[in-house]
Design the sequence.
């Protein structure tokens, strides 16, 4: 649903940068000390600025590559508006866990379905209560390898109280291998998908939402063991002047800023009353 461009890019390109959803600002990292067989548990962390507008339109995600082929999986969070589906249950966000490519099977049929952005793969999605100003960790972990070498992976959302929630599970053909340790963390304004033909000067202004990503993490001994964090980022995505507010202000309506530890904050849209994206303190 979100990244129709992805499948075609994957088919035609092996360049890492080309696999990000169109125009999503990003920061890429590599986990150090890759285990001999690849990573079996990895995570990314997300914190939404409480000044963010409560509406659907953004996807904060981490895209990880597998060890033994060129396919990827994503997980991340999408805020939703008060009036979006499930709001009556007090849930105002989605947690997503998807895998792209041929040879991916649904494990949880109540949470997952057998395609990813209209192409081969599996997507799992869970309505969650997403609080701004709180940290969330999403963990992808290998939970089974069967006799044929087929791997089953669980996606788990952990809130800042340490409470885990199962997002979904899918399994991968043996040819995928484990996880490579390369990751791109990105922040997409997916409301512009399908509007590629509209000039930026005529696109509605993105509303302000900002997300701080923690450093990508690997767990060499499983989720309850010690963690390894990625070092400084190895690349950044391009920032564009992508809507009519940005064209009027002649400055990108997206911003990235890096903390001393190398973690990135990515902002979309201007703070209300501002013509510039303001980094978080
Ligand atoms: C949400 O729905 C309520 C009740 O239908 C309506 O009064 C309100 O304006 C809606 N809010 C938004 C942001 O659409
Ligand atoms: C993985 O998810 C399944 C639900 O699909 C659950 O039953 C199982 O306990 C989970 N495994 C681990 C190791 O968390």
Sequence:
């Amino acid at each position: 649903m979100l990244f129709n461009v992805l499948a075609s890019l994957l088919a035609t390109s092996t360049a890492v940068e080309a696999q990000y959803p169109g125009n999503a600002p990003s920061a890429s990292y590599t986990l150090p000390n890759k285990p001999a067989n690849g990573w079996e548990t990895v995570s990314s962390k997300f914190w939404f600025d409480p000044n963010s507008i409560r509406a659907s339109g953004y996807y904060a995600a981490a895209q990880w590559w597998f060890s033994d082929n060129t396919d990827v999986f994503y997980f991340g969070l999408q805020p939703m508006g008060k009036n979006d589906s499930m709001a009556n249950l007090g849930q105002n966000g989605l947690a997503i866990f998807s895998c792209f490519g041929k040879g991916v099977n649904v494990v949880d049929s109540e949470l997952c379905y057998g395609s990813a952005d209209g192409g081969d793969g599996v997507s799992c999605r869970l309505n969650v209560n997403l609080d701004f100003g709180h940290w969330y960790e999403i963990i992808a972990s290998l939970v089974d390898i069967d006799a044929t070498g087929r791997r089953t992976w669980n996606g788990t959302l952990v809130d800042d109280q340490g409470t885990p929630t199962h997002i979904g599970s899918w399994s991968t053909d043996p040819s995928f291998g484990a996880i490579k340790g390369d990751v791109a963390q990105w922040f997409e304004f997916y409301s512009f998908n399908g509007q590629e033909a509209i000039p930026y000067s005529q696109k509605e202004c993105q509303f302000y939402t900002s997300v701080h990503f923690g450093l990508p993490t690997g767990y060499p001994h499983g989720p309850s063991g010690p963690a390894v964090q990625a070092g400084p980022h190895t690349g950044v995505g391009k920032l564009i002047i992508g809507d009519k507010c940005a064209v009027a202000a002649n400055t990108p309506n997206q911003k990235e800023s890096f903390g001393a530890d190398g973690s990135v904050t990515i902002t979309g849209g201007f703070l209300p009353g501002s013509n510039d994206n303001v980094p978080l303190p």
Summary: The CA atoms of residues 114 and 122 lie 5 Å apart.
